[in-house]
Design brief:
The protein is an alpha+beta fold. It folds into two domains: 10-276, Glutamine Phosphoribosylpyrophosphate, subunit 1, domain 1, CATH 3.60.20.10; 283-563, Rossmann fold (3-Layer(aba) Sandwich). The protein is built from 20 helices and 20 strands. The protein has helices at 20-27, 32-42, 78-85, 138-147, 157-173, 180-189, 234-241, 281-286, 292-304, 306-312, 330-347, 370-378, 406-417, 450-461, 466-479, 489-494, 499-510, 526-532, 540-543, 549-563, and strands at residues 10-16, 51-57, 68-73, 95-101, 116-118, 127-135, 194-202, 207-211, 220-223, 227-231, 249-250, 255-259, 265-269, 320-324, 352-353, 357-359, 381-383, 394-399, 423-428, 518-523. The strands form four sheets. A seven-stranded antiparallel beta sheet has the order 3-2-4-1-10-9-11, with helices on one face. A hairpin with a 5-residue loop joins strand 12 (255-259) and strand 13. Helix 2 (32-42) runs antiparallel to helix 7, helix 9 (292-304) crosses helix 11 and helix 15 (466-479) packs across helix 20.
Length: 571
């Protein structure tokens, strides 16, 4: 992805099901759990670079000693800093919880790092919580806590989730017999509108992982006689415990994996499963491509763009050079290249390809002068010279998606234009991102979406400003609860223009001043996306079809904020 966006966090929950002596005898180490948790986090480090945290809890801790140990870091390289500071002998408990954080609200610091802790003098009411989540109804949860006699010290969703689960845990502990899934997790989760995978550890030795009923956020689990584990990505579990793809299961939407103090593992239903809306951006960009299914799907995303790309260059293999934006578009490019080679061989042509755009990963500048800083920013990307024939070649460059378009306009296109191509074609393996996200991705306003800005251009070019007034009125009605569930006033704006008109307007916005080459942008269609990723239909940022009613409130508020020239988040 050329535009850096902050997105999903990573979580890891590990329960050792044997005595500590077992792991010393078999593996020769007293910190087996700590080592495995560190590896689980390292294999998911792509999911969080703003903070890291680890916690370990011992079964039957000796009175007078802390029941758990927790360590966090918000250093520039938080996971490396965390692993360098922990003392393994202090993390030798049987229950371990880890987290990597991407700050979707721009908040940084130790206070925002997971795991969060609700301390109690009673072990069975002490709760440690970490998760991958974003909720749209934190105001309502805040008010509910106040109504139950609490004095919330924060309005952050992580804090509120922790306090609400702890509230029902307190109530349940008053019973002689209670069910963690039904009496605690279900009652708390009934208040959540959003996407979440929550992992928790309780001081008495219970632990759990809970997934939202639409399956928006990912969660996978595996257990054997020695361990039980939950993580955000399947390959992390496979690498850490040397198991096969088929042995790692997906945590079903609306269900909780509950591990009892004696080590028993059960799947428990908490909420009614809804239509599956697994986030498709996991397949396009977020998750690492060493998952076999994700690798195959990304290749398909590249392959499916071939007809449109060949049409953009009039099928001219001889005078077209193919490349991609490093590094997340690489697997999609492999699919594109394989199909191009197949077609070129049949017609007696050769596909010319190579790495044109090269990102300087260590590029840094601390220049304060704005003009010089802009000049340096343009050179975050470099190019390979001598591959494109000036004046005669088309240059096709594949990206996985285009969000804001800032990097494409300010850095990538100007540097590509220096090679002298007659035409530049930018291919996106994702459709245009038209709507804000409110379930984890850092795309919370309409101001930052180039597709929406292009839509506004179309409205103005066609003299249809009245459409914005009508949409504003409808957005107010959505927030007032006066319109049916599922009403999206922004979607109706897009329906006034064709897909072709929108893509042309996006290209006009992306084109930098002084670009000599002709520019064309090619997007994946939503139908093709669904064909490539059939089990991940969470596409609300492309289609405007949100999985929860909170999403429709968010998009309505986002429109109002945009029209009021207010850059605040809509949730």
């Amino acid at each position: 992805m050329s535009d850096p966006i902050k997105h999903e966090c990573a979580v890891a929950l590990l329960r050792l099901r044997k005595s500590p002596e077992y792991y010393v005898k078999k593996y020769g180490v007293a910190d087996y759990g700590c080592r495995k948790l560190a590896l689980l986090l390292e294999k998911q480090h792509n999911r969080g670079q703003d903070g890291a945290g680890m916690a370990a809890l011992k079964l039957h801790p000796e009175p007078g000693t802390p029941p758990y140990k927790i360590e966090k870091s918000s250093a520039p390289m938080p996971l490396a800093d965390l692993l360098g500071r922990i003392r393994p002998e202090e993390f030798s408990g049987e229950l371990l919880l880890g987290h990597l954080r991407y700050g979707t609200f721009g908040r940084t610091g130790i206070d925002f790092c997971h795991p969060f802790v609700r301390q109690s003098a009673f072990l069975d009411r002490t709760l440690l919580l970490a998760g991958n989540f974003n909720l749209t109804d934190t105001r309502e949860i805040f008010q509910k806590l106040i109504a139950t006699g609490h004095h919330p010290a924060s309005k952050a969703d992580g804090y509120l989730i922790l306090q609400l689960i702890a509230h029902y845990l307190e109530e349940a502990r008053g019973k002689r017999v209670f069910d963690l899934a039904g009496d605690v997790l279900r009652r708390a989760a009934e208040n959540f509108d959003g996407g979440y995978t929550l992992c928790g550890v309780i001081g008495d030795g219970s632990c759990f992982a809970l997934r939202d009923p639409s399956g928006i956020r990912p969660a996978f689990y595996y257990f054997d006689d020695e361990i039980a584990v939950v993580a955000s990505e399947r390959p992390a579990i496979q690498t850490t415990f040397d198991c096969t793809t088929s042995e790692v299961a997906e945590l079903p939407p609306g269900q909780a994996l509950v591990i009892e103090p004696d080590g028993r593992v059960e799947l428990r239903k908490c909420l009614e499963a809804q239509e599956p809306r697994r986030c498709v951006f996991e397949r396009i960009y977020f998750s690492r491509s060493n998952d076999s299914e994700i690798h195959r799907e990304r290749r398909m995303l590249g392959k499916s763009l071939v007809p449109q790309i060949l049409s953009a260059v009039n099928g001219d293999f001889d005078n077209t050079f193919f490349s991609y934006i490093p590094n997340t578009a690489q697997v999609g490019f492999h699919g594109l290249l394989a199909e191009l080679n197949h077609l070129a061989f049949r017609s007696g042509h050769e596909v010319r390809f190579g790495l044109i755009a090269v990102k300087d990963a260590k590029f840094r500048t601390f220049i304060s002068d704005a003009t010089l800083r802009k000049e340096f920013y343009m050179h975050v990307y470099d190019v390979t010279y001598g591959l494109v024939r000036p004046g005669s070649d088309n240059l096709v460059v594949l990206d996985d998606s285009i969000v804001r378009g800032n990097t494409m306009k300010s850095a990538i296109l100007p540097i590509l234009d220096r090679l002298g191509p007659k035409k530049i074609v930018i291919g996106s393996t994702a459709p245009p991102i038209c709507y804000p996200d409110c379930y984890g991705i850092d795309m919370a306003t309409l101001h930052e979406l180039v597709a929406f800005e292009a839509l506004i251009d179309l409205v103005n070019w066609h003299g249809k400003e009245y459409l914005l007034r009508e949409a504003r009125h409808e957005a107010d009605a959505v927030l007032a609860g006066e319109l049916p569930d599922g009403t999206n006033p922004v979607k109706k704006l897009y329906e006034n223009f064709s897909a072709e008109e929108l893509v042309s307007a996006i290209a006009a916005r992306l084109k930098p001043d002084g670009l000599k080459a002709e520019l064309e942008v090619v997007y994946q269609s939503c139908d093709a996306l669904h064909a490539c990723c059939p089990n991940h239909r969470g596409d609300w940022y492309f289609t405007g079809d949100y999985p929860t009613q909170g999403g429709y409130r968010v998009v309505s508020q986002a429109l109002i904020n945009y029209l009021d020239n207010n850059n605040e988040r809509a949730y």
